[in-house]
Amino acid sequence: MPVAVRPLPPELAEKAKIELFEDPKKLEDSIQHLKEWIAKQPHLKARTEDQWLTAFLRGSKFSLERAKEKLDLYYSLKSLIPEFQLINHRHPKFMEILKKGILLSFPKSKNLTDPRVLIFRVAAFSPAQFTMPEIMCVGNTLQKIMYMEDDIFTVNGVVNIMDMKGASISHFSHMTPLLAKKMIVATQDAAPMRMKAVHYFHMPSSVETIFNLMKSLLNEKNRNRLHVHGKDFEPLYEHVSKDILPVEYGGNGGTIQEITDYWVKKIEEYREWLDEEEKYGTDESKRPGKPKTSEDMFGVEGSFRQLQVD
User: Does residue 103 have a pLDDT over 70?
Assistant: First the structure.
């Protein structure tokens, strides 16, 4: 039975071939291999849609062993990081957060081979309204949809824009060293995405401690992809085309409201698919060998005990 995976446009297929070692002729075998491996794991209940597994293969540059590691870790974290499961798409807070346009992916792209661009507008919410883990829950849900339907995202990777204008230390009051470690493991090790760059703007001095903590936990490759700018967005245009940026950032890619509306509609489209998410994860009591524990995965509190960030 042929795989149910969208064929890539020629330009994107060529990039996937060169950078990710993707071979359409071998894709079916690779997907089948993962399905058979998942079926043999007594502790693992994972999605097995062809398109979903393709995202993990691309995020692992088609190394089957690395894809297995990512899949296993991705689902393990559902129980090991309960903070990122606080609210789902049906929780009232979810739509409140989404409709504020706090964390968005820009749906437009200038070139097929450019990375997808995401923005985090930190001061678009009040610290009294939402916590950083709740914001992360929304961001993780948007990413799940992108793994399924955004080939630009899964092949080219992502550029993050961190707009810190108006941000204060209160916005990060829940950001303990332990939570920072969990965020890094979830994004750097478990998520099947390629982080190409993170651009920080309007970084207040009060938040630099948080930034330095996060930076220290990244691997060297990702540390080198962090770029801190001033208050002028002009440097951004050297990296991201104005064609995809919203009007509020000097672009002509629509307004923040229009992009927000796009994602509100997308969540509605995926509502039943997202309902299924609740049944996936791991049962560590059934894992062959030693179960994964939070202490083993994130035992960093001792290392940072002297660092006060809240």
Answer: yes
